Structure formats: structure tokens, C-alpha cells
Amino acid sequence: MPLISEPIGKMPACLIPLLALFFCASAILAGRSTAHTLRDETLPNIGVDEKLNTDVPLDLSFTDQNGQLVRLRDYFTGGPVILTLNYYSCPTLCPIIFRNLSNTVIAIKGLSLAKDYRIVTVSIDPDETIARATAKAQETWRMLPGLANHANRWPFLTGNAVAIEQLTGAVGVRYKQLEKNNFAHPSVIVILTPEGKVARYLYGIEQPPSVLKLALVEAAGGKIGGSPFLNQVLLYCYHYDPVGKRYGLAAVNIMKIGGGAVLLLTGILLFTLWRREKHDAETRGKETGG
After folding, report:
1. How far is CA 158 from CA 8, 55, 77, 117, 127, in A?
2. What Å distances lie between residue 243 and 163, 186, 247, CA to CA?
3. Which residues partner with 247 through β-bridges?
4. Which residues are within 8 A (CB) of 258 and not within 5 positions of it... i.e. 6 or more apart?
5. Where are the alpha helices (DSSP H) in the chain?
6. What band does 88 get if pLDDT is binned at 50, 70 and 90?
């Protein structure tokens, strides 16, 4: 009988450590093999190929959470759009993204989801059901109690494989189905202009309100959320860092503003002194002539 089939208790004591070492080595090698497969075959297929200024195919048809056939174009009626690509049976990442995005929407000052912009969520799962879309929509909308007309301002869409591939391909988002109802996908939201062009990509599971506001104002050309002049000043003072993938103060522009302010104040001061000197000279001339 082969030695490995004997009960451990009957094996020579000197062979037990060797057997344990064999199983540990096998487990380690198996783990390395799995990691190698995931790294080499799956991860390269997940990511974002940024396609700034690319037109999104707005005539693509999807089904909303109410079972109604819609086109992407229906949601581009004057303001920028936040596009999120998720799937509704996602157990961990997507619910966190929806919750954080809802909190950010509430925290943004000066912009309103009710009138300034929209969020459109499209499932990347072609087998997605309307029931799951409805459940996810209602779950998310409950986080925004002050928002009216939820279905129009933040719809949850499903579609067939062709429409999904055309949309994700247009915005450059790469993902991979690992098994049924399980996808690996990047954590990113895509900011689209009112005309349906890709304006900006924001990465991570949470966006600071100031960052999202800047991206929306930039996408809208400064035409939303109050004074267009103040929005242009805001965009002048901040710029998008393509390396850090965040907005930050534009130091050069800030220095230009500071330098201009100094020159302006200096000019005002010199003009004031000149006027005072001129006034004093005229006063002295009148006194002397008198």
C-alpha cells in the first residue's frame, strides 16, 4: 500500500514533517499559479483608456429601471452628465460608490442634481434584470430624500451586450466578467459635456465635493451653478492634474492674479498720491497769489 494512504498515526514519525512540508509547498505553488493567472490574464483587461473629447453614442438604446425603452440622448438636455458603469448585483464596490456619490451630491455647494446636471448609471452586465435595476435605483434614491423626479435625474439603465460594449468602448472603460453576475471593473466616473463629449475621468470610490463640482463646471463651460463669471474665475484658479488625477490650485495663474493685484494697487496708490500732490500744489498757488 502506498505510504501516503496510511493513517498518519501509523507513519514513521520522521516522515510527518516531510509530508507537511510537501502539502505547504503545494499550496504555495498553487497560490502563485492563481496569482500569476490573475495578474497576467485578468488585470491587463481592467482599466481606463482615457478618450477625452470623444463623442459618446447618444442614440444607443437602453431600458430604465421602470422597464421603459430610453436613449442616452434623453438625458442630455442642457447640463453635464456623470456616467457611472457598474452592475447591480455587485456585493461590495458598487454599493460603496453609490453611497459615496450620493453623499457627495448632497455636500456640493452651488450645484443641484435637480437642475444643473444628471447622473446616469449603466449596468455592464448584459444579463442584468429590470428587477435588480429597480431595487438598486430605489435603494440609492432613498439616500437623496430631497431630490424630486429621481428617475429622470439619476436613472439606472440596463442594456444588451452590443449597446454596453459600444458605450464602454467609446469612453475607454475596460472590464472583465469573471463568472456569472461577477465582474472586475475600474472604480471611475466619467464626466460628459451637455453635448455628450468625454470631459473628465475621476478615479476612486469617493470624490470630494469640490473636485466633482470643478469637473462639472468645467464640463459645462462654466454655465451652471450661479455666476458664470465666478465659475470662470474658479476654473482659472484651479486646474486638473493628469498625474495625480485631481484638481489643484494653478500656482502660475494664482501668481498672475497676485501680480496683477499688486500692480493695480500700486497704480491706485501712485494715482492717489499724484492727485494729492496736485491738489496741494494748487492750494499753495492760490495762497501765494492771494
Report:
1. 56, 21, 21, 21, 9
2. 31, 17, 10
3. 240
4. none
5. 15-37, 93-107, 130-141, 150-153, 161-171, 209-219, 228-237, 251-289
6. very high
Cell (9 digits) for 281: 500744489
Task: Specify the pTM.
Answer: 0.69
Q: Identify the bridge partners of residue 156 per DSSP, sorted by sequence position.
A: 121
Nearest CA to 198 among 82, 47, 78, 70? 82
Listed as own residue / partner, the contacts of 95-101 with beta carbons closer than 8 Å and 24 or more positions apart are 96/205, 97/187, 97/189, 97/205, 98/136, 98/139, 98/140, 98/143, 99/143, 100/205, 100/206, 100/207, 101/189, 101/207
Here the cell at position 112 is 443641484
pLDDT digits (tens, 9 = 90+) for 98-111: 999 999 999 999 99
Q: What is the per-residue pLDDT for 45?
A: 79
